[in-house]
Amino acid sequence: MTMKSRMLPALVAGAVALATVIAATAVGDQPRAAADCQRSVAIDPQVTVSEAAATLTFTVYTASCAAAGSVSYAVTDGTAHRPGDFALAGGVLQWPAGDSGLRQIQAVIVGDAVTEALLEDFTVTLTNPSPDVRIAAATGRGRIFDNDTSIRAVTADSRLCLLDPRTSPPPSPSPTPSPKPDPGTVVPCTIEPGNIVSTPLATNNPSTLDQVVTVRTSDGDLTAGLDYVAVNRTLTVPAGQTGVYVPVQLLPHAFTQSWKYFNLTVTYYSGGTVVTGTAKVTLWR
């Protein structure tokens, strides 16, 4: 056997080994497939409606990758009890691969003519995620505003707002307030035209006259002038409405942040009293 013939098997074996290493490296360098990533889900932290509303609806947001998956939700009575105050059973939310849409959980509100606590609440908790789902914010608090009392009141809801993936949004004009839709109508907190996030103020009863509220923002992890435009203004709740949305304009730096927040506080309500008037507005991406 010649030297050349003795070396050939070794060269072939070496080439096979090298090809195996190259193939493994190439696979390792490729982006992770959708099935290997993890979807993040989060629920509205707080939703308040008048007892006169037919429904109370939580939004469940999704971000990160659009992997197929599911999450369960459980309902726990607080000062609001089933079946006398509301109706809602636990369930499961599902997303097929590629679906980045929102999901909603809707409770039926039971109206009565009994004077109760001004605000009664219950919780909805996300639980039991499938392997490709991560729960980023698990607990939502539903609040029912009693409308059978002589007391008129206003409250502010904390918000979890899903940011677009943009990092340099275009300039936008100063925001203007927009009346809240009919009770029970849901407006998810995503970025609106003009880089606006909106925080709802809810009243327990509509009035036959316009009502006035004064609101102001304050810094949390986010800073006025850097992340958002400070608000200190008076808004009108139109006659016949049960609330109004307070728009706050985001600045470009805010689009680089996640799980950071600012506060919005109701300092005055012409129609009556302010109940838990400070809301936390958290940005999430």
Q: Please, could you describe this protein's structure?
A:
The protein has 285 residues and is mainly beta. Helices cover 9% and strands 43% of the residues. It contains 1 helix and 20 strands. A 5-stranded mixed sheet has the order 5-7-3-1-9, with no helix packed on it. The chain has a 5-stranded mixed sheet with strand order 2-10-8-4-6, with no helix packed on it.
Instruction: Provide the helix percentage.
Output: under 10%
Report the C-alpha radius of gyration, rounded.
Answer: 26 Å
- The computed structural class is mainly beta
Number of helices: 1
Give average pLDDT, whole number: 85
Give the oligomeric state. Answer: single chain
Shape label = flat
Run of helices and strands:
HEEEEEEEEEEEEEEEEEEEE
How far the N terminus sits from the C terminus, by CA atoms, comes to 68 Å
| Count of DSSP strands | 20
Enumerate the strands of the largest sheet in spatial order, edge to edge or round the barrel: 5-7-3-1-9
Percentage of residues in strands: 35-45%
Low-confidence stretches: 1-35
What does the largest sheet look like? 5 strands, mixed
